[in-house]
Amino acid sequence: MSALMAIIDAFASDPFKGNPAAVCLLEEERPDDWMQAVAQEMNLSETAFLVKREDGYSLRWFTPSTEVDLCGHATLASAHFVWEHGLLDRQVEGRFHTRSGLLTARYSDEGITLHFPIERGEPAVAPEELIQALGLIPRYVSLSRMGYMVEVDSETTVRTLVPDLALIAQLPVQAVIVTSRGASQLGSPYDFVSRVFLPSIGIDEDPVTGSAHCLLASYWEKRLRKNEFLAYQASPRGGELRVRVDGENVTLLGQAVTIMSGRLRI
C-alpha cells in the first residue's frame, strides 16, 4: 500500500524559499506513533496528514518530535495540495477539521487565504533566562498559549539576533517570538518583522510561522492602529505574508510551490 505525498514550500512563490512542509493524504486514520515516525523521517518543521471526510478533510500536524495544535504553513501547504492534485475545485472553500477547530482556505490568483482564530497575549515580566537567551532587554514581553512574544528596538536587531537556543529550550514555553516594527526609515516595506524559535519541539528556528502571525497581528493592530499588514519573517529562508485582523479572526495570504511529489509506502 502507498499514500500520495508531496513536499511543498509554503509562503513562497519560488522553490527553496518560505517554509517546507510534507503533506500526506491517507485513506483512513493511522496510529499516532506511525505518523510521528513519518514526521521524524521527513525531518521538516511540519508534516501534515489529511483524511477525506464528508465535509472536508481532517488535518493533523507533526514536528519531528511531537504533534502540535496549530500550524499555518502546513495548512497552506495542505490547501495547495488538494487544489493542485484536483481533489477539490478551486472555486470551492477548503475545510480542514483540526485540534484548533475548523480552519478554512480560499484560492485566488493572488494566492491562498487562510482563516485562523486570533491569538492574544497578556503582558508579562521577562524572566532572567529569556533575557540571557536573547542577550538584550526587551521593549515589551507578552505571554500566550504559544509562548513569549518579545518586541525589540529595531528590524536590524531582529535580523541579526543570535539567541542561545539551549537556554530557550529550557524555558517552560513552546515558542519565543521576536518582533519589531519595520524599518521604514531605511526603506523596509514591512509593517513588522519577526523570527520564531521553537527548540523545545525540535525546531531551532522556524522559517515562516503562520500561527505566530495570529498573535503578532493582534499585537501590532494595537501598536500601529491598523488591521492590515505586510509582514516578513526574517529567518535564513525568509517569508512574506499579508495579514489582516477581522474581529476574532486573522486571515493570512500566501503562495506555495510543490518541490516534490510521489508515493509513501505504508
TrEMBL record:
<dbReference type="Pfam" id="PF02567">
    <property type="entry name" value="PhzC-PhzF"/>
</dbReference>
<feature type="active site">
    <location>
        <position position="46"/>
    </location>
</feature>
<keyword id="KW-0413">Isomerase</keyword>
<protein>
    <submittedName>
        <fullName>PhzF family phenazine biosynthesis protein</fullName>
    </submittedName>
</protein>
<comment type="similarity">
    <text>Belongs to the PhzF family.</text>
</comment>
<dbReference type="GO" id="GO:0005737">
    <property type="term" value="C:cytoplasm"/>
</dbReference>
<dbReference type="GO" id="GO:0016853">
    <property type="term" value="F:isomerase activity"/>
</dbReference>
<dbReference type="InterPro" id="IPR003719">
    <property type="entry name" value="Phenazine_PhzF-like"/>
</dbReference>
